Amino acid sequence: MKSLARRRAVNWLMTGLCALALSAALVPLVSLLWLVISRGFAGLSWSFFTATPAPVGETGGGVGNAIAGTLYVVGIACLIGVPIGVGAGVYLAERGDTRFGDSIRFTAEVLSGVPSIVVGIVAYGLVVLPMRRFSALAGGVALAVLMVPTLARSTEELIRLVPGSLREASLALGVPQWRTSLRIVLRTALGGIMTAILLSVARAAGETAPLLFTSLNNQFWNWRPDQPTASLTVQIFNYAVSPYPEWHDKAWSSALVLLLLVGALSLMGRWASRKKFR
User: Fold this and answer.
1) Which of 79, 110, 149, 187 has the maximal Cβ count within 10 Å?
2) How far apart are CA 14 and CA 9, in angstroms?
3) From its phi and psi, is residue 216 left (phi > 0), alpha (psi between -120 and 50) or beta?
4) What span, in angstroms and rounded, lies between the C-alpha atoms of 243 and 14?
5) How many Cα atoms are found within 13 Å in the side-chain-facing hemisphere of 207?
6) What DSSP designation does 174 have?
7) Given pLDDT bands bounded at 50, 70 and 90, which one contains residue 184?
């Protein structure tokens, strides 16, 4: 009886400590979320989502061009990074048991830990300097470099979860191995790969440092890939460091919009993962 009572006491104690640790982790997150919502919700309006930034001293204005620029640059990053990342993951899972595969895997692990500002400097040297201008293309390249390592490692792990019997059945029917990888293996792991893509897009949408060195900013609408383009993160940075209270309020509202955008992508990834693996 004493041993049972002691085990129950230890169980309650550890449960309480875990609950305390959870509360300690949730307090700053909830307070940050409440601060952004309370400071940024008042500035939301239709013109805020559709208008361009107003000059200093004038009322009104919005971040419509920054929202469109974020979607534009992230879209370019997806066009570059998703095929490379998913393709690298498929190769590592299917043919990666070699020295070349080990080197690719090691490179992906190293790149996943590189600070984003370093990636921005590299993209500046490789894209901006040869083009002699900041551009949306350079921003997309920088964000694609951040997406590829995560996509490659996630795709590899998800494809390795596919049962080997599916590969063997397809090969036994005379299907070539490349078609088996694309039509059978990749399709089976597609739900998890889509989740990894959405999470990578959410991370890329929240980056600021690489875009300061690549796409820079633009106060107007731009749909040309060879011209500077506005983005939400850079717009928030410019508003936050300015000495004008009106711009500070717009920075809070822009931060709320970015938070909602990234949160929506994360929820979509979580929903796709549960729907696939339920």
Assistant:
1) 149
2) 9
3) left
4) 49
5) 33
6) T
7) confident
